[in-house]
Design goal:
By secondary structure, this protein is mainly alpha-helical. It has five helices and no strands.
Length: 106
């Protein structure tokens, strides 16, 4: 019960601080002449890693790379989830995400 309450507090704080944090990052990017697409990419990776933490308990993995890893070790549920992810993001998305994250084929 205590862990559940801590998770709810963490989610609430994240939602409360999200808008000011994103606005602050946009202002910082405008001041430093850094491209805004870099910011959106960083945010997308962060959200993807949040998904990895929530779904798999692995905060340093993205959902796609962890799904590929589990599927490659014979997890049938991961195989079904990988087909779904690849249907939305393109052929071999999960494998490419794994390779990019761990430098396998770069």
């Amino acid at each position: 019960m205590k862990q559940f309450l801590l998770m709810l507090v963490a989610i609430a704080l994240t939602l409360i601080l999200l808008i000011p944090a994103v606005l602050g990052q946009i202002i910082r990017h405008l001041i430093t002449d850094r491209a805004l697409p870099d910011l959106w990419w960083d945010i997308a990776i962060g959200l993807d890693q949040l998904g990895g933490a929530v779904l798999y308990g692995e905060p340093d993995w993205t959902v796609s790379s962890r799904t590929f890893y589990l599927r490659s070790r014979g997890n049938r549920y991961a195989a079904m989830f990988e087909r779904l992810i690849n249907a939305f993001f393109g052929k071999d998305h999960c494998e490419i995400a794994y390779d990019n994250e761990f430098g396998v084929k770069q």
